[in-house]
Amino acid sequence: MQIKDVVIVGGGTAGWMCATALSMVLRGRCNIRVVESDEIGIVGVGEATIPMIQRFNELAGIDEHTFMKATMGTYKLGIEFVNWGRVGDRYMHGFGPIGQDLWTLRFDQYWHRMRQLGKAKDLEAYSITRMMSKANKFMPARHDQPNSPFSSIAHAYHFDAGLYARFLRGLCEQRGVVRTEGKIVRVQQHAETGFVEAVELESGERVAGQLFIDCSGFRGLLIEGALQTGYEDWNHWLPCDRALAVPCESAPVLTPYTRATAHSAGWQWRIPLQHRIGNGHVYCSAHISDDEAASTLLSRLDGRALAEPRQIRFRTGMRKKSWNKNVVALGLASGFLEPLESTSIHLIQAAIARLVKFFPDQGFNQAEVDEFNRQNRFDYESVRDFVILHYKATQRDDSEFWKQCAAMAVPDTLQAKIDLFKARGEVIRRDNELFAEPGWVQVFYGQNIIPAAHHPLAELLTVEEGAEFMTNVSEVVAACVQAMPDHAAYIRQFCAA
Ligand code: FAD
After folding, report:
1. 114: which of 119, 133, 163, 174 fits an S-S bond (Cβ 3.0–4.6 Å)?
2. β-strands 196-201, 184-189: how paired?
3. Of 4, 69, 76, 325, which residue is the catalytic one?
């Protein structure tokens, strides 16, 4: 069976990102069609990203400033976490490295020793992206200055998800992707193999293909509706199951970071765009009513709400297989992890890259399908562990929700990471897991998990040398930040919508 017609079911972020990538790499080798329904619409949230999205846009030939203008985008240098360890705590997971590694040891090992001796500042003083965020500054990395912190600035974006899908659709249509508007009412499968052969629209139109990409959102029209693949529920580790989203008026200062503020039974996101701020309250319905969740959200906005809060219900977890027969599920159809570390769009991007790697030719090779599913599961599970850490590493005991989080048993893979860090500050990045050592280190310290000791090699520097090392790094970082433009001014100059 030659793969000639690829049918993408759904035109949200997942559908159009997939169409963009496939239209680039297949270069006319297959016909690509996106079927979407304006009446059903898209989930319409998903506005904060991580730096890897730059790679996707670059490979798709998207100019950064054009994209920022089209999507009302702003820059993002990390996520500020408020009230997570204890009420009143505040720390940031800034993108990119912290300080400067020396010999074979990570910077934070020296920092931990000096901190215990009272000769180091807060960890943020050694991170360029955290200090930029604090000062509301922005500039992209300068790769022509490899020995300066300027070269290690890592950035992502905040954008309007609906405008991003529209922007990608424009590119795809120029590249020959065909869009079909209509509601799918029936899925036709081969009587013996169960492979999907076609989808049937309300109008009676039949769209046939050999490979189907299910980007239909939470409903998983093909992967679950037709193939009944099954779903693995992670609610016992991540108990939030609802979100209320509401946009509000902009604040006077345009902050270059996302904020995640913990409340009594969940947390609230704040994502500044050029024309508004996106807000949402992710909460656990077993511990707070919808009305209370809405009033918590509305009472903590920077400006006037621009709409009524919109509720989204979800089940955290993943599809048992994302690739089943001739259906590959992407985006919400393949699984969901709450947006605490803004990872969903990245998981779409990673799965698309994997689909390209294992793209079928003459039929389907089960070994390749199995490897796709294994890698996809690894991605989901490693992101899941990182998100769970934020809940587990809490000292809050002011609500039943937080007591439950602090007491819960976590996956063995995460427990091993916590134990390793508590002993001597060690973090091991397994295989090619998404979050590197600086991310884990910032969350551990930020939520008051302090190692019992530092690595012995940190003592290769004398106390005076160690203190001087700390001072030098923080002074260089501060001088770099001082010289940078304001985030809002940078946007006004280069990419105002
Ligand atoms: P959708 O946007 O739901 O698209 C589904 C598509 O399928 C639509 O086009 C719809 O019309 C079509 N469709 C469905 N049924 C039919 C049918 N019968 N016939 C025809 N068409 C059909 N991700 C991040 O990376 N960062 C974030 O900050 C972030 N925040 C989030 C906050 C919340 C509360 C939630 C729930 C998610 C968040 N996400 C975030 C995830 C992000 O929104 C999604 O990963 C992303 O939008 C992709 O969605 P999708 O394309 O899979 O689904």
Report:
1. 119
2. antiparallel
3. 76
